[in-house]
Task: structure prediction
Amino acid sequence: MKFTVERDALIDAINWVARSLSSRPNITSLLGIVIDVTDTIKLTGSDLETSTKATFHAEISETGKVLVPGRLLAEISRSLPQKPITFLLEGTRVLVTAGTAKFTLPTLSLSDYPTLPEIPETAGIITSDIFATAVNQVAVAAGRDDSLPTLTGVFIEIVGKTITLAATDRYRLAVKEITWQPKNEAIETSTLLRARTLSDAAKSLANSSEVIFALSPLEAKEKLVGFVSHEKTMTSRTLDGSFPPFKHLLPQQSTAQAIIEVSTLLDSVRRVALVTDKTVPLRLIFSENSLLLEAGAGEEAQATEELNIEYAGEEINIAFNPTFLTDGLQAINSPYVHIAFTGEKKPAVLTGKNELDGEIDNSYKYLLMPMRYNS
Result:
């Protein structure tokens, strides 16, 4: 095996494939990246839950296939000078050279490398930037506790031309609707995919114009989700379990509504929250065209700040986790936030507005549970 490749093409492919490597795999061979040289170069990595592949062109002198330590390959590639990089297999070692820099990599046993699943059947096509934005807006609300695996996922529901993404950690809920181009417009299905896997796919495929979304058929024994974009693919096993019902949690009516410039509110929340821990409630008092933010109590450091806002409805005295509130404001991705209340002890729903007097963007909703505030 021998080939020469430009540094940027190699690093782009390795970075994509290395994201699916596990630091503590059950099989030693899964520490490695497969380099398969035919008429093109194909790299493969997997942790058995997620598999990634990348293909690139190079000047090929000899074909062959080898398995090398993945993370070491990634670190070496990033450290090499901006020169063409040559790979040469010599016995059980791979010589990597770029200019005067030379590295020798050991090889791992290819015979122990598992057979990985193929990309499932294409379900449709999503515009990449729309897909990336939607995933970022929703994944922020996914749980981080692996003892509750269902809540670490993003629920994906497909009905015709509409995809609904939802995630929750029990303290907040993010829901986003987007349109796509399904292969079958009568499609109705759903799946649950780990949030960090979905985020990796969205972030890395955002540079392409479109992403092919693939799903295993309902009758398949192994439930898989696949993403394809140009010369990169990702295949992931779905999460077991049922995502909790969530649509009934989003109220249809409100008793009070606020409209606030996002940048102004974000700055105020961050300032006032400085005097307390990020998980300690931040108190917000909404009244006629006014919002008072308070943090800290008793002998502790305290902070207050008042904003002029657009507000209609009953006075609301409510408290939120400042980190969760900040996450929601950033995820809205709009100049203005519309906050709808149904009571002081009930969740508030954040949506975006592009203009102060414009329409509410109901395609994205961020529901935030209130916290108990000790004054």
In short: Residues 222 and 270 are 45 Å apart (CA to CA). Helices lie at 7-18, 70-79, 128-139, 195-204, 262-272, 322-332. The first strand starts at residue 2 and ends at 5. Residues 122-247 form a domain with the DNA Polymerase III; Chain A, domain 2 fold (CATH 3.10.150.10).
